[in-house]
Amino acid sequence: MRPFTPFVRPLTAAALTAAAGLASAAHAAEPIGETGRITLGDTVDSGVSETVTLRNSYTDPVVVAFINTRNGDQSVQVRVSDVTGSSFVIFMEEPDGQGHNPESVSYVVMERGSHFLADGRKVEAGSVDTATTHRGASGFAGDGVSFSAGFDGAPAVLHGLNSYANGDFMASMATAVDADGFEIGLEAAETGAAAAVETVAWIAFEPGEGTLDGSPYFIGAGADGSNDGVGQGPHAIAFAGFDAAPDVIASVLGTHGVDGAWARGAGQFDAGGQTVYAEEDQIRDSERGHADEPIAYVAFAADTDLVAAEGHLKWRLRNAADPSSGGNWAIRDLAFCADAACADPLSGVAFDSGNAFDWAPVDDAFDGDAGTFWKTHGVDPGNTYIGLELDRPAVVQGIDLDADNVVYTPGAYYVEYYDADAAAWVVADYLMGAGDLDAAVSLRERFPTAWRLRNAVESHNGSNWALRELTFCADAACAEGLSGAAFDSGHAFDWAPVENAFDGDTGTFWKTTGSAAGEVYIGQSFDAVTEVGGLYLRTDNIVYTVDEVLVEYYDAVAEAWVTADYLTGFDGSADDTRAVTVRDRFPVSWRLRNAVESHNGSNWALRELTFCADAACAEGLSGEAFDSGHAFDWAPVEQAFDGDSGTFWKTTGSAAGEVYLGQDFAGVTEVGGLYLRTDNIVYTVDEVLVEYYDIVSGGWVTAASLAGFAGSADHTIGLD
Fold first, then answer.
1. What is the DSSP code string of 679-711?
2. Pick the residue with more confidence: 111 or 15?
3. d(Cα 353, Cα 324) in Å, to the nearest integer?
4. What was the pLDDT predicted at 29?
5. Nearest to 256 by CA among 234, 276, 278
6. Of the candidates 301, 310, 305, 247, which has an alpha carbon nearest to the alpha carbon of residue 56?
7. What is the DSSP letter of 73?
8. Does 25 have pLDDT greater than 60?
9. Rounded CA gap, 564 and 581, in Å?
10. Is 291:228 a contact under the CB 8 Å cutoff?
11. Using an 8 Å Cβ cutoff, are 41 and 29 in contact?
């Protein structure tokens, strides 16, 4: 075992927060909604309701449903209740409380809040708890709803009940829809149904057509100029491009028919269209004629997952350094682009940090006129920014910056986006370069601008470390070497400077004076964020070779050195090419430790133990056995790893948590599973901790807690 405490400056909390934000941004967007369809065989008054299990999980969803078919002509409506993040209850109900023929019902689910679909179309969802009710022959007035961010025009508002408090027929109404909001309430029509506080769900879609995951969709709202009652000319919705009938949800938006109405399928429901009636009840009278009403609708391919747009609405450039002038930063023109080549500049509302000169405002940086410019005063590193607020989420993939005189150029920039969920700015990329900047932008989790090797132990002679050659490479096989500015820790002899390690000449070398483990390093800094995938070393004589090294990078955003990998086993006077992996942990030893005493309270025995690379233990690992020193001389730890179940390791008595056995490996080793052959039950420990020694943090870490071991049995256990 080689306990080692590194001299690594930790990441700041702000840097860790930024990295976490980037990790989530890089992942595929989760669905914010879904559509689906179900057949309901009868009404709730006939005892029929169905629970729909959602394909996706939600935090706070709302649901709107619509009866597409007309297998029974009696007036009927669909309702939803018991909405959770994973399911809801759905049922039909006739105004007269009777049964009904089976009907097909489409539904749309949406996470509460304001969103953009994958193609940038805006949608907002919510609900209102209200007892405000319209009844036949009365005026229409609902509770006011304001959108959190207005639409460009009136959206298509779908609505429906998400509760069943009144225990009787009830529908919903939406009126006075415009770009900023609408009114919503309950619709009793002429039924006389009792009013009770109900939850009315609503989903507002920006109208238009598009495609999601290769399938078309159609969203609209409006009147068609003809009466929409049952038996009259239905409102016809036409669409194209579907292979089969899509999921269609429709709602009445108007208040022209004072009797009140709700949307219901009128007969056609197929791949080419849906007809809709403004359906009335027949409680007070039998007629169901109705005035022309605006109908809102959506049509998505069956079982569509509604995925949020990737990207963000606000992007900015922030100075990571002082301009050469030490005070002013100026930009002639700036473009944020959706592509790396900046053929597709994004547009939006310009903003800055508020320290621009009045005569050089932020808009001058986006006007396409190189004769005008934006210029700031009082610039300190990190405190000045310039950006755009877009009208649709986007991922910036390129920057095109025309700088002013080089003295007004910082030379290093943070590209940042605003994470609305976290209410925080997150660094997406770090760009370097004085003067004009034409650069691709990436979403990164780390920002390495320099790489180095640091000695985890002393050299063989305890004093000097020498390297003939060192190359940092972009790939594991070192087919693509990288070049940068050489640096070291300052321990080199004057006649063996750091440049000698990067000159391609094995006749020269870099050599240090004596220093302790962890204090000597050698590396290169680069002029851009640079990932290292491998390295090549030509070592010197074995006496000047360091057997264990840390591969580290300097994160320009966190302003800290971070350990990426730990490499061991270097021969003297040899060429060595190594892959470099950026790791979260650095396990070099694994062990089992007793979380409780054995059954007899004294001795623990194991016939066999194998640490494995995989959960099924198809690939066993080998290493140097060790234990806590409690074993009997005649039952040493090696017998637990000898492949012979006739021998065993057995301890003298000790308290819970004090006894362990394990293996030390030659380098960083991940364990995916383990195999145990237990001894007689009296010598078996029922609960064990699986732990690894992290060479960088210098401590033991619990990887898993396992329990329930039978005596005299084989156990193969996978580890997460």
1. --GGG--SEEEEEEEETTTTEEEEEEEEE-PPT
2. 111
3. 20
4. 67
5. 278
6. 305
7. -
8. no
9. 7
10. yes
11. no
Phi, psi of 316 (to 5 degrees): -150, 160
Question: What's the rounded Cα separation, in Å, for the pair 92 and 65?
Answer: 10
Strands 649-650 vs 143-146: parallel, antiparallel or unpaired: unpaired
Of 207, 139, 137, 151, which Cα lies nearest the Cα of 175?
139
Question: What is the DSSP-derived secondary structure letter of residue 257?
Answer: S
Q: Which of 389, 142, 173 is nearest to 260 (CA)?
A: 173
pLDDT digits (tens, 9 = 90+) for 28-40: 468 999 999 999 9
Q: Are 158 and 296 in contact (CB under 8 A)?
A: yes
Q: What is the pLDDT of residue 51?
A: 98
**How large a percentage of the chain has pLDDT more than 70?**
96
pTM of the model: 0.80
What is the CB neighbour count within 10 angstroms for residue 714?
12
Helix-strand-coil percent breakdown of the chain, rounded to 5? 5, 45, 50
Q: What is the average pLDDT across 68-80?
A: 97
Instruction: Categorize the per-residue pLDDT at 2 as very low, low, confident or very high, splitting at 50, 70 and 90.
Output: very low
Q: Please report where in the chains the tokens 């410019």 appear, as a residue.
A: 373
Q: How far apart are CA 489 and CA 522, in angstroms?
A: 7
Unique residue bearing structure tokens 């075992």: 1
DSSP string over 83-98: --SSEEEEEEE-TT--
CB 566 within 8 A of CB 456: yes
> Residue 14: is its pLDDT beyond 70?
no
Contact, 77 vs 264, CB < 8 A?
Answer: yes
Two tokens at 130? 């209200």
The CA-based angle 622-625-630, given to 5 degrees, is 155
Comparing CA positions, the residue from 60, 187, 183 lying closest to residue 128 is: 183
pLDDT above 90: residue 149: no
Report the candidate in 584, 602, 604 with the shortest Cα–Cα distance to residue 593: 604
Alpha-carbon torsion (82, 88, 89, 92), positive or negative: positive
The dihedral through the CA atoms of 110, 113, 118, 123 has a sign that is positive
Cβ contact 501:544 at 8 Å? no
Average pLDDT over the chain reads 93
Torsion over CA: 92, 95, 100, 106 (sign): negative
